[in-house]
Each structure stands twice: as structure tokens, then as C-alpha cells.
Amino acid sequence: MDRLNILVSENIKRIRQEKNLSLGDLAKLSDVSKSMLAQIERGEGNPTLSTLWKIANGMQVSFNTLIAQPKLPYKVTKLAEIEPILDMNGGLKNYSLFSDIENNFSVYQIEVGKEISWISEAHLCGTAEFVIVIQGTLEIKLEEKTFILKKGENLWFKADVPHGYCNLDEGTTIFHNILYNK
Known about the structure:
It is built from five helices and ten strands, in the order αααααββββββββββ. The protein has helices at 3-18, 23-30, 34-41, 49-59, 63-67; strands spanning 85-87, 92-100, 105-112, 117-120, 127-135, 137-142, 145-150, 154-158, 163-167, 173-181. Helix 2 packs across helix 3. InterPro entries: Cro/C1-type_HTH, Cupin_2, Lambda_DNA-bd_dom_sf, RmlC-like_jellyroll, RmlC_Cupin_sf, TransReg_Diox_bact_type. Keywords: DNA-binding, Transcription, Transcription regulation.
């Protein structure tokens, strides 16, 4: 069992118990099967980003609450030492660079393979998302609006509505994603 799965499983179980939810209750709230939730709490398998977002939204907590590590007065991160959450058969890698639950703030580096696109579910009400493109070209669809961002371009938006991403580059697109919830 890898470190990230252990962390996610411990956090989900702790939060579920703090909220006095059974696995069945959480399954109804998150639209994730009871057996999948039990498997995740045991640290088995690799839940997708979509599954983790459903669980976070079902428990009404931020995504970073699920992957948060114990709090220290400082944090140094090295990308090579962070285990990414994989999705889209490995074409999408989400690295949690920083997560501050107390201030509802998290920073991710997301690497998107060629021709990969996805829809992100609406985040908790009041969540803002800041996207900073480091490499490549990223398309973001937000309700009726489409934004094309290239290296060095940035976007802020209210993320409490579904929104989509698509790598328009011939290679990997890399961006930093900062989530803040009031």
C-alpha cells in the first residue's frame, strides 16, 4: 500500500466517523458504491480523481482534506517525492504540492497528456480556482465560455460549477491549480 493510499484511506475513514456516517450513508451522499468506499478505506486500489471529488463533495469537505498530511509549521516539497493521483489511464497526473486545510487552500501541479480532456464536478460553494499554465496549451470550458491558455497565461474563476479541461498541445501540458474556499 503506497503512502498516498494510506493517507487517503485514513482521512476518509476519520472524516466519515467524525460526521457519524456509515459506509451506506456516504455511498448515498457521494454516489460511490459502498464496496468501493470500503475498498478505499482499506487502502486498496487507486481511486480516480473523479471518485475522490465525489467523496469530498458527499462529505461536504474540500478535496485537499482527503489528501492532507499532518500539519507542521513549514513544508518543503519535491515533485520527485510526491506520488501523483493518476487518472485517464495515467494520462492525467495530479501532484498535491501544498494543502492547508485550516485556510482552505491547496496547490496542485497537474500534468496532462496529449488529447486528454475531462469535466471536473462543481466544487464546494465558494470555491475559487486559479490556473497558471507552465507548459503547453490548455482549454478551459466554464459554463458558456471557453478560454485558451498558453504558457505564462493564467485564469481565475468560481469553481462551484462544472468545468472542463482539455490539453490542446501536441505534448504534455503542465499547470498549477490553486484552490481556495472561503
